[in-house]
Each structure stands twice: as structure tokens, then as C-alpha cells.
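Justification of resources, computational component.

The compute hours requested in this renewal are based largely on the per-chain cost of generating structure records like the one below. Each record pairs the submitted sequence with a full C-alpha cell output. That output is archived, and it is also reused by downstream analysis tasks.
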Amino acid sequence: MTPPPAPPPDPAPEHLWEAAPLRAGFWFSVLALIYLVDMADRAVIGAAFPAIKQAFHVSDGRLGLLGSALNLALGLLVIPSGLLIDRWSRKGMISLMVGVWSLATWLTGRATAWGSLLGSRMLVGAGEAGYNPAGYALIGAWFPPRLRGRMIGLFNTAQPMGSLIGLGLGGIIAYRYGWRQAFGLLALPGFALAHLILWAPDYRTRQEPERQHPPVLPTLLGLWRAPSLRCIYLSQLSIAFFIGGYTIWAPTLFMRTYHLNLEQASRAMILPLAVAMLGPFLGGWLSDRLMRTRPDGRLLSASLMLAGALPLYLAGLLGALRGMPMAGVIALLTLAQVCFAAHWGAVVTASLELVPPSLRATSQGFLPLFQCLSGAWSATATGLLSDHLGLGTALLFTVTIGILPGIWLLLNARGTQAPDQDALMLWSRGLETGS
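The structure output for this chain reads:
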């Protein structure tokens, strides 16, 4: 199927920051706002879990399918979306994706049967498939290497901020006005942003007439064969297992452990998510600093942040199981969330810098692909464990097997980062020219 004509690219947006910093800052803010809406539309399902469970009379295991359905669709479409982005248009794909997931979020609030509810969440995942690869590719083009870590870190503050809106504000709306209204209201901003992003500066992936689109399979295999990229991709299997289980079920844990209603549980999640907004920027800043003296600085930064997050998460969950006052549990989980949020910007920046601009969206597509391979069943697995062992024990398991292998894989990726970068650049040139 031939893609529609791409919106016309900007003549020269590469390193837009150097030529027009205000323009670069504005469009960066629009991208971050879209990411915030994305995360809010994704996270609100966790706030609505208790109300949906009551409305549809389902078990925890079946309830977890709502999180899994989104990740399944995302995983199926993310690589095709990344390939299309590198051959079509970054801003065109973002506009299309935002429109689709906003419509799907609105349809979630209108669902009257369990099948239509699952289908709408799958459609949200389908809409999200092409956004992140395209967004990261644009940031990599707009900003020079010395600023990329900080800008991607700043971009990723939209993750906890959007989750804060989805879980916090969404939970309050759901408690006061009904869970359907929460989805309807959070869907609205995306429609306006889908139109606005079409005016953003894009770039031509290949301007030389002698270059051809490289074959799909050799492109994917070439990226996979780079040891450092392979370790980064594989780390997302375990890390996404943690994200998919913990993010969806944490509000329900607070409700059951401390006997809170939906609004109170949503408010309890506000502090960890609000403070976690500092994490991505701090992680990006640290990785930029380490890169001045170490070529593996970004991956070292990410590994250290994950290593700090793991014991804090475990201490907070064990504290909740053993009757620790809620304020102490929230404090521990807040510190854990800051450390975890700090690792992500460094991982993304490292994977961006390993590949040439013409393959960045395709390469970034691997990250959510591997996230979805485990994220597609982590919420369901955590729910099934909860049915048999209790939710607190299930989350302890999810945190441990989610973060620990990720640390090991990111540490291993450091060893071949520099030679892989040179090899990938030479390989991509030969791939595009057919030599």
C-alpha cells in the first residue's frame, strides 16, 4: 500500500536550535505536550480500574488484559510505523497517531461491553505506535549532540507529568463524575495537537538522488547485530514488565492496603509522580556530564539510576505490606520513581547516537517493540498473581524481575558502544548506496 503524500519538509531543520532557538523551543514544547497527553490517555485506565472492575464484574487477571491489549497493538505496529516514518514524514506520522489514539480514548469511555472496551484500548496502542520514534528522531535533528541528553531528558518529564494527570486528575474525575467522563475529557486535547504538529519543521531523510530506500529486512538485521543496541533493546523486555505491572496496579494497591476510595488513592499517587518529573531532566544532565569524560557515560548513568531505584521500590512495597504509615511508603516510592525516571532519557539518547539520522526512527521503533513483548502480558500476569498471592506480593515480584535484568543488560551494552557507532555509520552508507 502506497503511503499518502508526505507534508512538505522544512528546508533545513537539522540542528534548528543553532539557527532559531525560539522556534526550536516552541516545537519542542509542542512535542512534549503531545507526549504528556499520550501518557495521560494511557495512565487513566489504572485510575479507573476499581470502577471498571465493578461495572463489568471481572477478576484482577481479566482486568489486567486492558493494559495488555494496548501493549499488544503497540508491539505489532511499532516497527512498521518506524520504517514508514523514515520513508515518509515524522510530523505526518505524529499527527496521524495522535488523532487515532485520541479517538480511541474517547471510545473507551463510550464502551458498553467488555469486547468493545478491550478493542478501544488496543486502538490506543495502535495510535501510539508511531509517535515516540518520530518524536525522538525530530529532537535528534533539532538539537546538537551537546544538548541531546538534556533535551531528551526534559522531553521525558512528560512521562510522569502525563501519568500524574491520568492517574491523579483522571482518578478524581472518575470518582466524582464517573469513569466514562474521565476518558472523554482526557481525549479532547489530542485532536487540536494533531492538527498543530503538521506545521512543525521536518527534515528530508535522504536528499541525494542516488540513494535508495534500503531493504527492510537487511535494515532490521543490521541494527539487531550491533551488540550494544541489542543489549539496549533486550533491557526493555524486563523494564517494561515492571512498568506495565506497577503503573497499572499501584493505585489499586493503595486502595486495598490503606482502605482508600478512588479519589484518595489518586491523590496518594500525585506526590511520587510530581517529584518524578525531575528525574528525566536530572538523568539527561548527568549523562551529558559523564559523556565529557567517558564514551559510555549515558549507559553508565542509566544503570546507576536503575540500581538506585530497585531497593527503594522494594522497601516501599514491603513497608506497605507490613503496615508502615502511608506517608513513609509514599516517600520511598517517590525517591524510587525519581531514580527510575532518570534512567530513561539516557537510554534513549544513547540509542539515538548509535545510529545515523536516516535510521533513527526505525531504531527507536525497537525500543517500544521490546517493551510491548513483555508489557503486553505484564499487567495480566500481575493481576493473575494478585488473584493467588495478593497484590502486594505480586508487585514485589514484578519490580524485582523487571529492574534487575535491565541493570545487567545496560551495563553490558557499555562495552561495545563506541565501535558499534562507527560500524553502524559505515554499514548504513553502504546499505543506502547499495555498495
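The radius of gyration is 21 Å. Confidence is low (pLDDT under 50) at residues 6-12, 206-211.
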